[in-house]
Amino acid sequence: MKAEDQLMDALLKEHARKREADEALLAGIEAALDGEEVQKTPKWKRVMPLSIAALLAMTAGGVLMRQKDFAPALAVNDELESRPMRPEARSPRVPRSLHRVVMKWLLLCRLWKREW
Amino acid sequence: MQAATVIEFPVMDRKRFTDLIRGHHLGLVAYATALVKSEAAARDLVQDSCVAAWQSLGKFDVSRDFGTWMRGIVRNKWREHCRKYKREVALDEETLSRLEQPFEDSPDDSDLFARLAECRSKLPEPMAVVVRVIYDEGRTSDEAAEILETKAPALRKRLERAREVLRLCLSRNN
Fold this sequence. Notes:
The complex is a heterodimer.
Chain A: H1 3-16, H2 23-39, H3 43-82, H4 96-115
Helix pairs in contact in A: 3-4
Chain B: H1 14-36, H2 39-55, H3 66-84, H4 93-100, H5 109-121, H6 125-136, H7 141-147, H8 152-172
């Protein structure tokens, strides 16, 4: 059947049905439009809270899991740091507490890298 | 001094959109059926097109005909359908233009079907009888051939000619 013939066939069928509204189709369209309205919330608004929660959970989990592994290394580090440093080796401009934090951070990074 | 006439178009909100769809969906399903050759696929196509229309409602010029705009979306969705399932054969632009003709200047389905009823009333009696038996009474072509005491191929040919006459009548009414 040609497309034009098919069109007239479909129109005549609809005409014979007394042109009653196709409620099932209209309900389907309404439902589809409702779904679209729900999805109209910007994607970043839907994804951002989930991403932050996942990141926090991963960080907390990672910290808890790694604390035990890092304990011996940190103990060695603390022991080394507790030894008196030669005056010429210590930078006069960097406070000792900051130096300790940086050293611990570098150690953690090194351990993390070795682990993965 | 004569005051300038300002035409106010209704705001296109969800309710207005739903009302317009209600007023055009039967014609759209018929149009989509001509494109995809299946009523079920046509209904899916119309539903997808309505969602696409709703998403791009901002592009719709309220001074334009809603039916024409919707059929454009149905056509685009159908082209996507053709690309997705390469078995489907795309229709040429000339055929698509002929498909558009019966709808031109029809503000909605009720106007379209009123014109179709008018065209049906002008059909020659042998054609009108075939259309009535096949569509209004819902008979198959074999049953109709038996009732009208004719051969089935001849009846199918007559029916095809009746549909062509109706299509031309709808197109001329524009």
